[in-house]
Amino acid sequence: MKGSLVLLFLMAPTLASGQPNLEPADCSEVTDFSDLTGNVSEVSGMYPIYPAGHGSETLVFCDMATDNGGWTVITSRMDGELNFYRPWDHYKVGFGMPTSEYWIGLDNIYYLTSSKQYELLVVLEDFEGKTVYAYYGSFAVGDESSGYQLTVGDFTDGGAGDAMTYHNQMKFTTLDRDNDLLDKENCARKYLGAFWYNKCHTANPNGVYRWGADGTLFAVGVSWYPWKGHDYSLKSFIMMIRPVQ
C-alpha cells in the first residue's frame, strides 16, 4: 500500500468515465463490467452501485488502484468539511459526497455484506505524511433489527495495529440511539461521533475532525488508538470493502 488514497479522491473526476451499463452491486462488479468490450476499468472515482438490487442506486467512491482495485469506500474522512455528529436516521441511509467526506449508509453496508463474504481495508494517514493500513479478512453488518451488529475478524497488520477487534459483535450507536456497553452513558455523545462502540472505542472514524495531536478534549477526534493513541486526530481515515476473492 503506497501513497495516500486522499490523492485519489482529489484527482477523481466528478463521475468516472466508462460507467457500466449493468447494475453492479459493488465496485468489484463495476470493474468487471466497466464497458461493453470487457476491458477492466482502472479509474478510481465516483460510480453508481445497486446494493439492494434494481432501483437502489447509490453513488460511491470506487478505489480501482489499491491491491488490484474493486474496493467500495464505506466511509472517508479527509478535511473536516462535513459534520459526522448525526442521528441514527442519517447513519441508516448515508450522507455526504463520495469524492469528499461521506458515509455510505448502514442499510447499504448490510445489503452488501449479507449477499457474500467481504473483506475490509482501513487506510490511515497522519499529518506528517505517513500512511499505514489494517486489513480484515472478514467483515459483515447485520440488519437494523440487530442494531447493525458488526462482525469483523482475520486481522493482518500493515503498520496501523488492530483497532477493530475491540468493536467486534458490537451494535451501532449514535447520539440518539444508545446500543453500546458503557454504563449510564452514550459513547456517541461522550466522544461526539457514531460507531460500533464497545465501552467505548479504539477506533473513532466518525469523530470530530481535528488536526493531529490535541489533548484538549479526550478521544473525540478521528482516531485509531493502536497507531497514534486517543489524542491524535488523523488527516485521513478511509474504510473500504470488497468481496473476498
UniProtKB/TrEMBL annotation:
Span of domain Fibrinogen C-terminal: 18-245
Keywords, sorted A to Z: Disulfide bond, Signal
Record has Ribosomal protein as a keyword: no
Cellular compartments per GO CC: extracellular space
Keyword presence, Membrane: no
Leader peptide range in chain numbering: 1-18
CDD domains given in the database record: FReD
UniProt cross-references to PROSITE patterns, sorted A to Z: FIBRINOGEN_C_2
InterPro entries from the UniProt entry: Fibrinogen-like_C, Fibrinogen_a/b/g_C_1, Fibrinogen_a/b/g_C_dom, Fibrinogen_C-term_domain
Ranges in coiled-coil conformation: none
One GO biological process term: elastic fiber assembly
Domain of life: Eukaryota
Protein name: Microfibril-associated glycoprotein 4-like
Organism, as annotated: Takifugu rubripes
